[in-house]
């Protein structure tokens, strides 16, 4: 099926926006039945307001643990609880010890 760009009006702010042929193809591929009713700016604002943005989503903030690097002695934070007797490295020392 061939698509052509459509001019739509945002129901939120009243601004005109283009529903491009490639966006229409994407919507069809995903099985979406309705055209977008909000402009990209209002969609982004709505996602951010509802907490549904991709960068924060439903992921919780990771707990970090303070420790000292076993190699260089610098204070650092790691995303796991350090185990006694096992070395813990800062970012730089970890990269130096990393095996590929």
Please, could you describe this protein's structure?
The chain is of the alpha+beta class and 100 residues long. The chain has 2 domains: 6-50, no CATH class; 65-97, no CATH class. The chain is built from 3 helices and 4 strands. It has helices at residues 21-30, 40-50, 91-97; strands at 6-9, 16-19, 65-68, 75-78. The strands form 2 sheets. Strands 1-2 form a two-stranded antiparallel ribbon. Strands 3-4 form a two-stranded antiparallel sheet. The chain is elongated, with a radius of gyration of 24 Å. The model has no long low-confidence stretch (mean pLDDT 88). Residues 62-98 form the CxxC-x17-CxxC domain. This is CxxC-x17-CxxC domain-containing protein. Residues 4-50 form the Probable zinc-binding domain. Pfam families: zf_Tbcl, zf_Tbcl_2.
Helix content: 25-40%
User: Beta-strand level of the residues, as a percent range?
Assistant: 15-25%
N-to-C CA distance: 47 Å
Q: Which class best fits the helix and strand makeup?
A: alpha+beta
Instruction: Count the E strands.
Output: 4
**Number of spatially distinct domains:** 2
Alpha-carbon Rg, integer = 24 Å
Low-confidence blocks of residues: none
**How many H/I helical runs?**
3
Domain CxxC-x17-CxxC: 62-98
Organism: Propionispora hippei DSM 15287
Pfam family, one: zf_Tbcl
InterPro entries: CxxC-x17-CxxC_dom, Zn-bnd_dom_prob
Which structural traits does this protein have?
elongated; alpha+beta; single chain; 3 helices; 2 domains
Layout of helices and strands, plus pairs?
Blueprint: E1 6-9, E2 16-19, H1 21-30, H2 40-50, E3 65-68, E4 75-78, H3 91-97
